[in-house]
Design a protein that fits this description.
157 residues, mainly alpha, Ferritin, elongated
Length: 157
C-alpha cells in the first residue's frame, strides 16, 4: 500500500473546491434560480451546493490518484490538461448562467464540458482505473445539469 502524500492530496482536493467556490462568488450565487421557470425533476436549490461539493471532492481525489500514480509523465500530463480544461469550463458556466443569464450559451458550455469530462474519464482511467471511475458521477450530474439548463432556457426565453 502506497503512503499518502497529504500535501498533494489536500492541494488536489482544494483546487476543484476553490474553482467551484470562486465561480459561485463571481456569478453571484444561485439566488435567482428559484425565480426561474424550471423543467420537471428540478431539485430544490439547496441540493446543488451539496452535490457539487461531493463532486469536487471526487474530482480532487481522482486527480490526486493521477498525480501520484505510476503512469507515464505523458499520460499524466494528458489527463491533467483535460482536467484543467474541464475545470475552466466548469468555472465559466456559473457566471454565464447565473450572472449573465445567457442560458443557451451556458448550455453550449455544458456540452463542451461534457465532451471534455468524457475524454478526462478515459485519460484518467489510463493512468488509474479508480481515478476514471471517480469522474463518472460528475459526467452523470453534468448530463442532468444539461437537461435542467436547456429546460430553463426553453421555459424562460
Amino acid at each position: 500500500m502506497k503512503k499518502t502524500d497529504w500535501k498533494k492530496l489536500l492541494l488536489c482536493l482544494a483546487i476543484p473546491l476553490a474553482v467551484g467556490g470562486l465561480s459561485a462568488l463571481v456569478s453571484g450565487g444561485m439566488d435567482s434560480y428559484g425565480a426561474l421557470r424550471q423543467p420537471p425533476l428540478s431539485p430544490p436549490g439547496w441540493v446543488f451546493p451539496i452535490v457539487w461539493s461531493i463532486l469536487y471532492l471526487l474530482m480532487g481525489y481522482a486527480s490526486y490518484r493521477v498525480v501520484t500514480g505510476g503512469a507515464s509523465r505523458q499520460e499524466k500530463n494528458t489527463a491533467l490538461v483535460l482536467y484543467g480544461i474541464q475545470l475552466a469550463l466548469n468555472f465559466l458556466w456559473s457566471p454565464v448562467f447565473f450572472g449573465l443569464r445567457w442560458f443557451l450559451v451556458a448550455f453550449f458550455i455544458l456540452i463542451a464540458m461534457w465532451a471534455v469530462i468524457y475524454r478526462s474519464i478515459k485519460a484518467f482511467a489510463l493512468t488509474d482505473e479508480i481515478a476514471g471511475d471517480l469522474l463518472i458521477p460528475y459526467i452523470l450530474w453534468v448530463t442532468f445539469a444539461g437537461y435542467l439548463n436547456f429546460g430553463v432556457y426553453f421555459l424562460n426565453r
